[in-house]
Amino acid sequence: MRLVTFTEASSTRLGVLDGDHVVDLAASAPDCPREMCAFLAAGDQAMAAARAAVATGGGRLPLGGVKLEAPILRPPKILAVGLNYADHVAETGMERPTLPIIFNKQATSVTGPTDPMHLPRASTMLDYEGELGVVIGKRCRHVPADRAATVIAGYTIVNDGSVRDWQLRVPTMTMGKSFDTHCPMGPALVTADEVGDPHQLDLQTWVNDELRQTSNTRELIFDSFALIEHLSTAFTLEPGDVISTGTPGGVGVAMQPPKYLVAGDVVRVAIEKLGELVTPVIDEPADTVRY
Questions:
Q1: 3-state class of 151 per DSSP?
Q2: CA–CA dist 259, 262 (Å, integer)
Q3: Most buried residue, 33, 158, 248, 280, by CB count within 10 Å?
Q4: Is the pLDDT of residue 58 over 90?
């Protein structure tokens, strides 16, 4: 299934993307939770109800009449991975890591699959990073790699927006990775059974019409299962947590000369079986000042 969060008639709720329609679970499976984290926490019963709703064909809305939001509006945790493709390690001139390099992106950085990314007033060094996102489906801890697939609800696309000067000022990277709107996500949470092997997926990123990144998730240094084992050694993973698994080579900062994003650019990230994430870049609006 392709689970989505969507807004229609001023109401935000869950659905299943089915061709050019969205099956509205509020109408066709009213006992299901209407928020993704709660839906995932409800487990197999909620998944079965959603599948039954698609099969019955009720509660269908034209895709053109709804707005797709990020599948998980506010993930409990966004755990991102640095330097996780060999070609990206090479283009940065850094050493291949012996353990996963983990940093956080704040939940307020999340935005939807067609929403704009802001070129911040604090920097002109905005970059893109197309990535596979792993969505946790079960509360879990100390998960061995050979059991990690059992705690994954599905997969999505993430653009790990990176403000390079802010990122590199301090080792933790979190500030430069967490500006508002700098975690576009979607368009759907594609369930693990539909994806199959998550480590055989083509990944491409374009800026406007220029292909910047092309790789396959088989090139991950630490794959999705190894990352779950590593992370769950330290802390509990929860339904709706997102692991952004890292980006391949081809980022703007590594080009000669660097090619940072500017207002008017459109970034498109495509991952096999997951769809496309399309993000226009705009200047940060004046109304972001709030105090």
A1: helix
A2: 9
A3: 158
A4: no
Q: How buried is 291 (Cβ within 10 angstroms: 0-12 exposed, 13-18 middle, 19+ buried)?
A: exposed
How confident is the model over 149-177, as pLDDT tens digits?
A: 999 999 999 999 999 999 999 999 999 99
On whether the CB atoms of residues 190 and 273 are closer than 8 A, the answer is: yes
Choose among 109, 130, 129: nearest CA to 120: 109
Pairing of strands 202-207, 266-271: antiparallel
Residue with tokens 């070609």: 87
Distances (CA, A) of 19 to 7, 261, 274: 18, 32, 13
Residue 4 near residue 16, CB atoms below 8 Å: yes
- Which amino acid, residue 120? P
- In the numeric block, the tokens 């993430």 are attached to 158
| Beta-carbon contacts of residue 267 (< 8 Å; ≥ 6 apart) | 117, 128, 159, 205, 206, 207, 261, 278, 279, 281
Domains of the chain: 2-68 (2.30.30.230), 78-288 (3.90.850.10)
Alpha-carbon gap, residue 67 to 205, rounded angstroms: 23
Residue 16 three-state SS: strand
Give me the chain's average pLDDT, please.
Answer: 97
Token readout for 143 is 């998960």
